[in-house]
């Protein structure tokens, strides 16, 4: 399998299936492309030759079959490797995990725009100020905090649905990184969960590679100002 991803510093959608595969221990080849939104870039040319969206993440299976969009990729992986516990075994817990992933996938617009993933940055003054001044940001942060805490209480942790890392954890992993970059104030149990995710070997591997990129994308590039693009 080949997984196409973009800059590790910025590409939160790429991180989700990458972290899932790495943490669960499924081998894959990684193809990293420099993030670009214009059609005559390597990024677009390469991706559009493989799938219609021209976006990452993109998974190409061994037989050449293409799966695009982070959520569809994770679903495909869960189908292809059904014994690896990517979704909870219990039907209702599985539905709850899917709800949380869908909530992340289609929501949290303010959180994504005010706290873009930027692993190499350290901006601890930003989080407390934004949360104090911006009601929508404060609501998004509070929702993530409470959903993490409720799930950890219900499952007993250490991951959202119990003892094994799954798709729901992968979906919220970039949020843990954003909270760290901007020192977003969250509750003790939520912070402990975020720290646990950031300490995963695969998460550290991704962060180390992100910090080694030194490929800083100007703030006025479309994908730095349009949160839906990263
Ligand atoms: N909903 C998609 C979002 C994918 C996405 O926006 N990827 C960004 C990089 S993280 C991208 O390819 N941006 C380039 C573009 O939109 O032209 C997913 O979940 O995979």
From TrEMBL:
Gene3D superfamilies with a match to the protein in the record: 1.20.1050.10, Glutaredoxin
One GO MF term: maleylacetoacetate isomerase activity
The organism's place on the tree of life at top rank: Bacteria
Gene Ontology terms describing biological process: glutathione metabolic process; L-phenylalanine catabolic process
Pfam families: GST_C_2, GST_N_2
CDD domains reported for this sequence: GST_C_3, GST_N_1
PANTHER family: MALEYLACETOACETATE ISOMERASE
Keywords: Transferase
Stated name of the protein: Glutathione S-transferase family protein
SUPFAM superfamilies referenced in this protein's UniProt entry, alphabetically: GST C-terminal domain-like, Thioredoxin-like
Boundaries of every GST N-terminal domain copy: 1-85
